[in-house]
Write a structure and sequence with these properties.
Helices cover about 40% and strands about 15% of the residues. Helix 4 packs antiparallel against helix 6 and helix 5 runs antiparallel to helix 8.
């Protein structure tokens, strides 16, 4: 495993260096069937919020799954704890790595089903390297992996309404995708700038949803949730390590993104912040520890969530 990690790291760094110097042989990808919308348009009664408002089940619980790279495995532990406590969301949103958990959750997957899916995946199953002037990971492998583990082919077919956060670089704003190809939506939401090749939709360039919305609480509210559980796997345990250029850049970007996300977290009724930092940001070897960290953090919030549910029914 250590040899594999070392080889993978060297290969990715090598490809990244070359991609900066070589003119791109792959440009933006085009997914014009997807329709990202700003939060203002969601409030005008799109299909998902309409479905929620027609439901008699109150209060409506929403979960906003935040981004954070390989820390995303912590979301499974949170889902496990909520499932054991009988707490089920009626609407979910996700950003970046959180879009993966949100997609499987909205598709109706149980914790045990998700656990089996991630047990069988490796870094190379979701990474398709491709030289380009604007990235070195194409992202289609991630989209294919998502779609290959789903029964539905369109987000609008999911039993639970789903919103996937993306960043529109052309308009310089955060938007959400509520219908269309789920794998492609996750691919866009997870497209880390400089690593993943950006995606173009109707002439607009889109990248990682976490750039402007690490934890998409505002979208969860806009889609009809009465109580929002925010799962923040990125901003609660920030590192101040500046020992090398890579860590300096990563932690600077992290600080900026988390600062922008403070209003979102302030809107949440419950914030779950697991305390776990993987040693290697490009490896899946810490899956088990990440899942356990998410589980333990969620357990601490179960009583508060149930109290909010009970008081909202009065």
């Amino acid at each position: 495993m250590l040899v594999k990690r070392s080889v993978a790291t060297k290969l990715l760094l090598g490809v990244a260096s070359i991609s900066v110097l070589v003119a791109g042989c792959a440009s933006h990808q085009h997914y014009n069937d997807l329709v990202p919308m700003p939060v203002e348009e969601i409030k005008k009664a799109p299909d998902s919020s309409f479905r929620i408002r027609q439901s008699n089940e109150r209060p409506v619980i929403g979960i906003a799954f935040g981004g954070g790279g390989v820390r995303g495995f912590m979301h499974l532990g949170v889902i496990k704890a909520l499932e054991e406590a009988g707490i089920r969301a009626q609407v979910v949103t996700g950003s970046s790595a959180g879009s993966i958990a949100a997609t499987f959750y909205a598709a109706g997957k149980s914790y045990s089903e998700m656990e089996q899916i991630v047990d069988e995946v490796s870094e190379w199953d979701v990474a398709d390297l491709r030289l380009s002037s604007n990235g070195f990971v194409k992202g289609e492998a991630l989209a294919d992996w998502i779609n290959g583990n789903l029964d539905q082919t369109d987000i609008s077919e999911f039993p639970i309404p789903l919103g996937i956060s993306v960043t529109d670089l052309t308009e310089r704003e955060s938007k959400v995708i509520q219908s269309g190809n789920p794998g492609q939506a996750v691919q866009i939401s997870s497209s880390i700038p400089g690593a993943f090749i950006p995606v173009t939709i109707d002439g607009h360039t889109y990248v990682d949803g976490g750039v402007l919305s690490v934890v998409p609480v505002r979208y969860t509210k806009a889609m009809g949730a009465d109580i929002v559980i925010a799962v923040d796997i990125y901003c609660g345990n920030q590192s101040s390590d500046t020992s090398n250029t890579g860590r300096l850049l990563l932690n600077t970007f992290r600080m900026q993104s988390c600062k922008l996300s403070e209003p979102d977290l302030a809107m949440a009724d419950v914030v779950i912040q697991p305390s776990f930092e993987p040693e290697n940001q490009g490896s899946f070897e810490s899956k088990a520890e990440a899942i356990e960290a998410g589980y333990q953090a969620a357990i601490k919030q179960i009583d508060r969530i149930k109290s909010l549910q009970a008081s909202s029914k009065l």
